[in-house]
Amino acid sequence: MRKTYLLITFFNLSLFTTLAQNKSPLTTTDAQAQQQWVNDTYNKMSLDEKIGQLFMVSVFSSHIGTKKAEEVKDFIKKYYIGGIIFSKGGPRRQAKLTNEYQALSKIPLFMAMDAEWGLAMRLDSTYAYPWNMTLGAIKDNYLVERTGRRIGLHCKQLGMQFNFAPDIDINTNPNNPIIGNRSFGEDKENVTQKGLAFTRGMQSVGVLGSAKHFPGHGDTSKDSHKTLPLISFAANRIDEVELYPFKALIREGVASIMVGHLNIPSLEPKTGLPSSLSSAIITDLLKKKLGYQGLIFTDALGMKGVSEYLPVGEVEVEAFLAGNDILLMPANVAKGFEAMKKAYQNKRISEERLAHSVKKILMAKYKVGLTSFKQLDESTVTSTLHTIEDDLLTEELFENAITVGQNKENILPIKDLDKRKIAYVKFGNDSGWAFYSTLRKYAETVLIEPKNEAQLYEAVEPFDTIIIGLHKPDKTPWDAYKFTENELKWLDHIAKKKKVILAVFTRPYAMLDVKNIAPIKAIVFAYQNNKVAQEKAAQLIFGAIEGKGVLPVTAHPNLPVGTSIVTPRIGRLAYGLPESVGLNSLKLKEIDSIALDAVAQKMTPGMQVLVAKRGKVVYRKNFGTLDYNPANKVTDNTIYDLASLTKILATLPELMRLYVRGDFKPVDTFEDLLPKLKHTNKGDLVMKDVLSHYAQFQSWIPFYRKTLDIDKKPLPEYYSTTKSDSFPTEVAKDLYLREGYADSIYKTIDESELIKDKKYLYSDLPYYYFKKYIEKKNKKPLQEIVQKHFYRGLGAYQLTFLPLQRFSPVNIAPAEDEKTFRSQELRGYVHDQGAALLGGVGGHAGLFGTADDVAKVMQMYLQQGYYGGTWFLQPQAIKIFNTCNYCPEGNRRGLGFDKPQLGKSGPTCGCVPMDSFGHTGFTGTFAWADPTNEIVIVILSNRTYPSSDNKLLVNRLVRQKIQGVVYQALSANKNF
Questions:
Q1: Residue 16: what pLDDT?
Q2: What's the CA gap between 128 and 250, in Å, rounded?
Q3: DSSP-derived secondary structure letter, 610
Q4: Is 403 helix (H, G, I), strand (E, B) or coil?
Q5: Residue 807's pLDDT band (boundaries 50, 70, 90)?
Q6: Residue 439 three-state SS
Q7: Among candidates 99, 117, 233, 114, which has minimal Cα distance to 184?
Q8: Is 794 helix (H, G, I), strand (E, B) or coil?
Q9: What is the mean pLDDT of the chain?
Q10: Which residues contact 879 (CB under 8 A, 6 or more apart)?
């Protein structure tokens, strides 16, 4: 037997390249002082104190105040334990216990935790970073290093010196029950580089890492917590694969290595001996052949993978003799301690062996500053455990991780929104609301939650593009991840009939159960059902962000490890955090105060506010109610009467489009556009002047007044309560205007006098003509033209005239409770009286929409006419229309666009560049774009409800103040 053992050992060890003796990762820059402290401390220690240093015991901070937590104090006082590993609980409770325990210990204790993806692996109300599997999909390893650093800082803030991470097991077995998402993947090089980066980041802030589970737990089908897993590979395979990352981390100075409980016959000849008790694996291989001089931990000694092999006490002795330095989580501290002491007294453990490990432990304690301990401030200990830096990094991680595995016909990113009907089908047993809500920010998307096969197949029939999301819980990396049998059948059926985009919000291995992926047009791996993952996956699908992740594992025979299809950004608005684009989120929160005050002071019932920079929406909030009814909260989908924003969101883009075609020029006159105006005083007015509000038009004409009686009620000769051929034009609910009155409006404008002086005077009147001109050129009504040319393609599906034809009134904010003229609440009917007389569609007013959809048009302008992969306009057109031609004369206006004030008062905060542009609306709306700083601001309100006499929002400059905060946030974040 001994001969066989020697032959096997010689054969095994010959396979491993002997590494040069590595420098100890525990040595500090002041090595001489460190060694002096270690020796002095060791020489002063009693035998019990030395043995106690070898033990790291477990405690739950959730057990604070209980017998279990108090028992640890006895371990410190009686057995002089060297460290504590915290498990479940909360940060404040853990800080309290840390202070109590450290105060009792003569030599400060190691405080440690399994925080592979952050403190949230063990503690409530703390931060969770993405799983290692998600990080494994990222190309940029510096992001992983930053993750390790942030997790290290969190550990350090809680007074911990050790984090048992990273897990560098190579997960080559999809059915591995305990590693899985905890692994960076199945490619040894990728796992290695990620492990190195994570360790580098964590140890850079003084928190020691631990590579685990040596010599590799990635290809097992059993959980070592429950049994002893078998690794049946030959020694050369283990050397080439499983040990590959450990060798690299040893070279780069990982502070410790945790040995797993594994049965590896090719490395350990004794039948069934766990690797954590194997001298051949720990001493001969890890310490001698691989030259490792850092600390060596056992995995938890209470796990069945080792505890069923030897009784308590003996297992600790054997683990130590095998080469481990620290005995982690012994099942019985007292028995383990006494067994170790007895073994020392019986010479099984030599003084040299004991000193070897204890001095390494002391070296590590010196390295992390545990020559003394400063009490944690329990009142502030959680202050930096979740900061904007964490949220920013998580966004960046998911943006870089989400992976396109299949993209047939280049369906991603989705373009041609005007030609698609899209539905979202939810699979899985967890929420997909963040995904669905974000999809709706880009296109009208109908939610389908299948209850049965027949209902599902009928529901998807009207749609050509079906986005399916597989949403599985991700509270832990071990949650169930597979499709149900029904879902697999439904997926196959729908994919054969429709264009299917499948988004997988769980581990990629879910795809292994899909027999045929060929019919699926696109497959997107988001890895987790995290809210950020859902939002970013939706943004990727529509081209707001790139697809650039790489599959870290084989997800299907046709989706091998390393699969990566890059999909581009196509100029759609993304959504993210302010600091990602150089704005200060704390400063932006001042908008909340302004908006809430506006609501509280009844300047307006409610409000939507959106701020975007560099093509990313970074502030999007709703305030108040639609109508002062607490039950009717403003939501993202609340639709507002945009009033004069109609000019720049409907009329102006159509004029620019005609300019690009050569049909409309700033030097044209109204006679050129509408020859019937030749014999009026409007015929020779030049468009450059007209669009600059510099053509001497009257400011407005109250066309509706002549249709009212002395009590300002509708005259029967003009109105009917029922629709007919004689009264075809709907002005409001149950109110119809007589046929032909629009001609009277135009005749009144034709015959109206021009003002005497040539000066700036804002006027709606030219926009009545522009509507007529645009409709004449396109041979269609304005409301149809802008949908066809702009809104459908932009995905601005809630930007519309006549909203009641498409949307429920419960989603529309009322503009006014009008006591005269229409004598009703105007909900979905245009507020502007002139536009109402035209049937709700005017060139100057009548458009309704949400902040998100208004922002799409403004962003399209900012991008010189480009959005969503389409050139809607040309840059030259936008440049010309955004030119102030009469600034020297004191007229700030561009061609249609409003511009920053030239004096002290005006539409803006007075803090924006002169190349910025936008417009305000009578109902309390505002849209502004700033090319210099790449900023879009949209503010929608119904300040005119219940009465347009309420001018508080205007007089108190609410819109200007909000804009001012945005620019203060820009300055406040310059040093972030």
A1: 42
A2: 27
A3: E
A4: strand
A5: very high
A6: helix
A7: 117
A8: helix
A9: 96
A10: none
Q: pLDDT tens digits, residue range 420-454?
A: 999 999 999 999 999 999 999 999 999 998 889 99
| Prediction pTM value | 0.95
The answer to whether 118 and 477 have CB atoms below 8 angstroms apart is: no
Other beta carbons within 10 Å of 77: 12
State the chain's maximal CA–CA distance in angstroms: 120
Beta partners for residue 613, in sequence order: 616, 935
Q: Which pLDDT does position 974 carry in this prediction?
A: 60
Strand ranges for 261-354 from DSSP E: 295-298, 327-328
What is the distance between the alpha carbons of residues 974 and 951, in angstroms, rounded to a whole number?
A: 36
Mean pLDDT to the nearest integer, 337-362: 98
Q: Is 361 exposed, middle or buried (0-12, 13-18, 19+ CB in 10 A)?
A: buried
**Per-residue pLDDT tens over the stretch 907-921:** 999 999 999 999 999
**pLDDT tops 80 at residue 922:** yes
The encoded tokens of residue 567 equal 């999909």
Sheet with 847-849, strands from edge to edge, namely 640-641, 847-849, 800-801
For residue 729, the cross-strand partners are: 737
Among residues 498, 414, 464, 447, the alpha carbon closest in space to that of 794 is found at: 414
| In the predicted structure, residue 184 carries a pLDDT above the cut 60 | yes
Q: Give the start-end residues of each E strand in 604-715.
A: 606-613, 616-624, 640-641
Residue 847 predicted with pLDDT over 60: yes
Q: Angle at CA 572, nearest 5°, toward 467 and 624?
A: 85
Nearest residue to 889 (alpha-carbon basis) of 715, 688, 711, 708 = 688
Residue 387 CA, distance from chain mean position: 15
Separation of first and last alpha carbons in the chain: 67
Backbone angles phi, psi at 407, to 5 degrees: -150, 70
Answer for the pair 249, 196: CB distance below 8 angstroms, yes or no: yes
Residue 8, φ and ψ in degrees, nearest 5: -65, -45
Beta-ladder partners of 805:
none
Residue 202, judged by CB atoms within 10 A of its CB (0-12, 13-18, 19+), counts as buried
